[in-house]
Amino acid sequence: MIHRLGVFITGHPVLMILLNLIIVFAFGSGIRKVTIDENIKSMLPKDIASRKNLSELEDIYGGSDVFLIAINHEKTVFNPGTLAKVKAITDSLEAMPEIVRVSSLSTTNRIKGEEWGIEVIPFMDDAPETQDVADQIRRRVFEDSTYLDQLVSRDARWTVVIAVLDKDTEPMEIYSEVGNLAEIFEGPEQIHLSGIPVIQTIISENIKNDLRRLLPLAIAVIIVVLFLSLRTISGVILPLLAALLSTVSMVGLMGHLGKPFMVINNIMPVILVTVGISYAIHIIVEYYENLSSTDKKRDALVRALDHVGKPILLAGLTTVIGFITMLSAPLPVYAEFGAILAFGIFICTLITFTLTPSILMLLPLPRRVINRRKDGLLDRFLDWLSIAVPRRRKLILAAGIILLVLFALGIPSLELDMNPISFFPKNSPLRITDEEVNHNLGGSINLNLLFHGNAKSHEILNAMDDTQKFLEGFPEMGSTMSLATIVKKLNRKLHADDPAMEVIPKSEAAIAQAILMYTMSGSPEDFEAFVDYGYENAQVAARVKSVSTKRIAGIADAVDRYLKGNHADIGEVKTTGFVVFLKDLADLIITSQIRSLLLAILLVALVGCITFRSLLLGALSIIPIIFTVVLNFGIMGMSGIDLSIPTAVIASIIIGIGVDFSLHFLSRFQLMLKDSTGVEEAVTQAIRRVGKPILFDALPTAIGFVVLLSSGFLPVRYIGLLISMTMIVCAVGALTVLAAAVTFTKTGKEIKK
Question: What domains lie within the chain, and their CATH numbers?
Answer without folding.
Answer: 2-40+200-409+583-751 (1.20.1640.10), 66-194 (3.30.70), 431-576 (no CATH)
